[in-house]
Specification:
The protein is mostly beta strands and 494 residues long. It has 3 domains: 171 residues, sav2460 like domains (Lipoxygenase-1, Sandwich), CATH 2.60.60.30; 92 residues, Sandwich (Jelly Rolls); 97 residues, Jelly Rolls (Sandwich), CATH 2.60.120.380. The protein is 12% helix and 35% strand. The protein is built from 7 helices and 28 strands. The protein has a 6-stranded mixed beta sheet with strand order 1-10-9-3-7-6, with no helix packed on it. It is globular and about 55 Å long.
Length: 494
């Protein structure tokens, strides 16, 4: 039953895959925040420059006629995420000029669950329109309408987003700059002092000769310390560490310690080309043409509202259909597949379906990433995995064929394409619960045939350090990369 809310009202919504429409031609973003009301980092901000959260909980799926659509799968939200904020902003003028500004939440069956019309916008250039938040084991929707005259900068700062421009300025309590002739021990002491840690003096053993002096070890800076250092400081610290390693005397072999398994990946996704997603919509059978795409593998998301058969095929240069991408009889089809863009950058697709459809072509990097939280769907899908060797559990509840293809990318030299041949990890008919061992990532898991509900989860995510190897390392090159979120923040600055 639809409920129209006014500012401050709230209502329960289904804990399921919901669609959210934000209307009136504004820029839209989503912030996934913890119980403290703050994001954990830039990756918790979903906007057109980073259209999908790594958990799969929120995705920007298209803009049509001034309406921005978001898909929210609340079952995929990580436990530490307690609220999803829906944010609107404008680059010119104020939000009072956005006539008909509203939020509408649609349930899994397409019916409207709740709506909120913003009627009191003023001089604000950014606003938290509404939020989805956990309550009593479920989720609720609240009409918020909290505006910010200082735009996205003020809104972002209130929710823990780093609004500083790169290169970062050294704050008053930042670690002291590293110089090429400064002693290593002094640098370690400076880092410790900056963090408020007491200096620990070694205690000599009685009646024992004084040990020979040894170079003081460098305390590895934390991620927070590195983020507070300038690029010159980071480079100098790296040079100092390399010099110290070359000068250090040979050390005895360490006592028995468990050896870490080798991992052929860095935890950073580098496969597929980067480009702005393309969105199209239509009705019933059609031939779709997209120009100017980067050659290679892309992610194709198809959402159909209607009953009956849905089929989609790529067309070759002679307009002949190639092997199908979608072949489904489920109603209201939703799924993701991969397609290969030819060298001329022109992707042509033949679509047979009933009812309205929405199609999105996006980089492979926007595919959901398999990590600690289970992923669920009821159609074909494409997943990424970037951790170490791990076991995964597939649980399929449909009656048809369930297939999982596995593509290992570590040795794939052409990063714009998938390997020509993959491994068939699962090929079963009917209900099935099966555990499959995965090698170390990066991997692509393609589920081309799954007409029924399914889920997948890691059976032992910590056994080989999936969380540690996935995003844990912070290198100099990564720190010096431009932050994508800055392009979003700059929209509110004049």
């Amino acid at each position: 039953m639809m409920r129209g809310l006014i500012k401050g009202n709230n209502a329960f919504v289904p804990t399921a895959a919901l669609r959210v429409a934000v209307r009136s031609g504004v820029d839209v973003a989503a912030l996934l925040v913890t119980e403290h009301g703050r994001v954990r980092g830039d990756s918790d901000i979903v906007f057109d420059g980073a259209p999908a959260h790594t958990s799969g909980a929120v995705r920007l799926t298209g803009t049509e006629d001034g309406t921005v659509w978001l898909d929210t799968d609340l079952t995929s939200a990580e436990e530490t995420i307690t609220r999803v904020l829906l944010v609107a902003s404008t680059e010119e003028g104020a939000l009072r000029d956005a006539h008909g500004l509203s939020v509408e939440v649609l349930g899994p069956d397409g019916s409207t669950v709740v709506t909120y019309e913003v009627t009191d916008a003023g001089d604000e250039t950014a606003m938290v329109l509404a939020e989805l938040y956990r309550r009593s084991g479920g989720w609720k929707f609240r009409a918020v309408g909290q505006g910010y005259v200082d735009g996205l900068t003020g809104l972002a700062r209130d929710h823990g987003v780093d609004v500083s421009e790169d290169p970062r300025e050294t704050p008053a309590q930042a670690p002291a700059p590293v110089t090429s002739n400064a002693p290593v021990a002094a640098q370690a002491k400076a880092l410790a002092t900056a963090q408020g840690e007491p200096e620990i003096q070694p205690q000599p053993q009685p009646h024992a000769p004084a040990p020979a002096p040894a170079p003081a070890p460098i305390r590895r800076p934390t991620r927070e310390e590195l983020l507070d250092m300038t690029p010159d400081q980071i480079r100098a610290l790296a040079m100092e560490a390399r010099a110290s390693a070359q000068e250090a005397p040979d050390a005895p072999a360490p006592s028995a310690a468990p050896a870490q398994p080798p991992h052929p990946h860095t935890g950073e996704w580098r496969h597929g080309s980067d480009f702005s997603p393309r969105k199209l919509r239509g009705r019933e059978n059609d031939v779709i043409t997209l120009e100017g795409l980067p050659p290679g593998v892309v992610l194709v998301e198809l959402d159909v509202t209607g009953r009956g058969y849905t089929g989609m095929w790529p067309l070759d240069s002679n307009n002949q259909t190639m092997r199908y991408l979608v072949n489904s009889t489920i109603d209201d089809f939703r799924g993701r597949v991969t397609a290969t863009v030819p060298e001329d950058g022109r992707l042509r697709l033949k679509l047979n379906t009933e009812g309205e459809w929405r199609l999105r072509v996006a980089p492979l990097s926007t595919a959901p990433r398999l990590k600690g939280k289970p992923l669920k769907s009821n159609g074909p899908d494409v997943l990424r995995y970037t951790g170490g060797p791990v076991d995964v559990v597939f649980d399929y509840e449909g009656d048809g064929n369930f297939i999982v293809h596995l593509f290992e990318l570590a040795e794939q030299h052409d990063r714009s394409r998938l390997p020509e041949r993959g491994t068939v990890a699962v090929n079963e008919i009917g209900r099935r619960k099966e555990t499959v061992p995965l090698p170390a990532g990066p991997l692509v898991l393609r589920l081309p045939s799954s007409d029924g509900p399914w889920s997948v989860r890691l059976k032992n995510p910590g056994a080989y350090g999936e969380e540690s190897y996935d995003d844990g390392g912070v290198g100099v090159e990564k720190l010096l990369e431009p932050r994508k979120v800055l392009s979003w923040l700059r929209r509110g600055r004049h």
